[in-house]
Design goal:
The protein has 84 residues and is mainly alpha-helical. The protein has one domain. It has 4 helices and 2 strands. Strands 1-2 form a two-stranded antiparallel ribbon. The two termini are 20 Å apart. The model has no long low-confidence stretch (mean pLDDT 79).
Length: 84
Amino acid sequence: MYKIVNGIEKIDKEDLVLVTEDGRTRGHVKQIRMRQCVKDIGKCNFPQRTVEKWNALNNEVVTSQNVHNFKEKIDKWRHGDRTL
């Protein structure tokens, strides 16, 4: 999800998630929203499964400068260092 939100992965992120970078959300600045799914198959795809997990991360993790830095920070976050 980090690569999609930050435009590193060469796919059109607007087809997958709705990124709200307007600063009016609680939590971090790169919150994403779920798209409406009409069919059940859409409810089990990658973006729908990861929205809640992504939005639960803190600002320090999602604003990492590169993938390596993101992986280090998310590992610390997962293992209980929620303050970073």
